[in-house]
Design goal:
Elements (H helix, E strand, L loop, with lengths): L2 H20 L1 H4 L1 H8 L6 H10 L7 H7 L5 H8 L8 H20 L6 H10 L12 H7 L7 H26 L4 H9 L6 H8 L3 H13 L11 H18 L8 H20 L9 H6 L1
Length: 291
């Protein structure tokens, strides 16, 4: 195992655990209710506006460009007039309000624990070390004010690290000429999400799926039966490898022992989050590909 591979192996469980802090904003009741209090009725509108809010009062076209794997039609339907209801500053405030209430309930006294304080100290510098070029969601989140409480700093840090890796992933996909829908099709072929789930949750049509599947077949990445070919598997693994290698640069100032300490502290906290059964079970994509 090379030095880079060893670092990525240490970071994979950290990325997975930090993701659990980030996604409370989508799945935990207090977070959803905070957005609902703004008077925005559609769940998809709340999602797009809540996640895009750090970029400011951007057009739906900008959200289309940034939210790589969603159908432009879905974004247009739910985000073309969201700022007519309330501004992005309100969404940012409600993001932290919901996270505060949710984490206070889910973690209890652990919001002031040794693990929480240790994590915020170790991660304080990590999340802001990335380059902003070509990373719109990461860059936008770097520019917002964050409350002083340690659990909210950790929530924001998790969001920064998640959006940094996501922006990197989108760049890698673009560089390999794989569209957002095509990325879903390739992952669906190894069981990551079903075709029906992708179409219903990302707004793509059956016809668009068929057309993009044909493109992948013409490139030799899929067999005629829709299964991933050897070339397709190599491409998918290469995409994940490059994403992880580039995203790992964020952590260059920390040694291996510090990464192990972070993982241990995270595990202590996220075990409380997952024990409530309020978060979905997320399996790292890379692991699905190589199993």
């Amino acid at each position: 195992m090379t030095k880079d591979q060893n670092r990525v192996a240490l970071l994979r469980p950290i990325w997975a655990e930090l993701e659990k802090f980030h996604i409370i904003t989508y799945f935990v009741k207090e977070c959803r209710d905070a957005y609902k209090s703004l008077g925005v009725k559609s769940a998809w509108t709340r999602y797009f506006a809540g996640r895009a809010a750090p970029m400011g009062q951007v057009t739906y076209e900008t959200i289309v460009a940034t939210f790589y794997n969603f159908s432009p039609a879905l974004v247009r339907e739910h985000a073309s007039s969201v700022w007519e209801v309330t501004g992005p500053e309100s969404f940012i405030a409600k993001r932290f309000e919901g996270a505060d209430t949710a984490l206070q309930r889910l973690l209890g006294a652990s919001v002031n624990s040794r693990e929480m304080l240790s994590l915020t100290h170790l991660l304080d510098d990590v999340a802001l070390r990335g380059s902003m070029e070509g990373k719109p969601l990461y860059a936008a989140n770097c520019g917002i004010s964050v409350p002083d409480e340690s659990h909210l700093k950790l929530f924001h840090t998790a969001t920064l690290i998640r959006e940094h890796k996501g922006d990197v992933h989108n760049s890698v996909l673009l560089g390999t000429e794989v569209s957002g829908l095509q990325a879903h099709i390739l992952l669906s072929s190894v069981g990551h999400m079903s075709r029906e789930n992708v179409l219903s949750s990302r707004g793509w049509s059956e016809q668009q799926w068929i057309e993009n599947q044909s493109v992948l077949q013409s490139r030799g990445l899929l067999h005629e039966d829709g299964q991933l070919s050897d070339d397709g598997l190599r491409l998918r693994v290469a995409i994940e490898d490059k994403t992880e290698r580039l995203a790992a640069r964020l952590w260059e100032n920390l040694g291996d022992e510090q990464l192990l300490d972070i993982q241990e502290s995270l595990n202590t906290l996220t075990s409380q989050l997952t024990s409530t059964k309020e978060l979905p079970n997320l399996t790292p994509t890379y692991q699905e590909l190589i199993q």
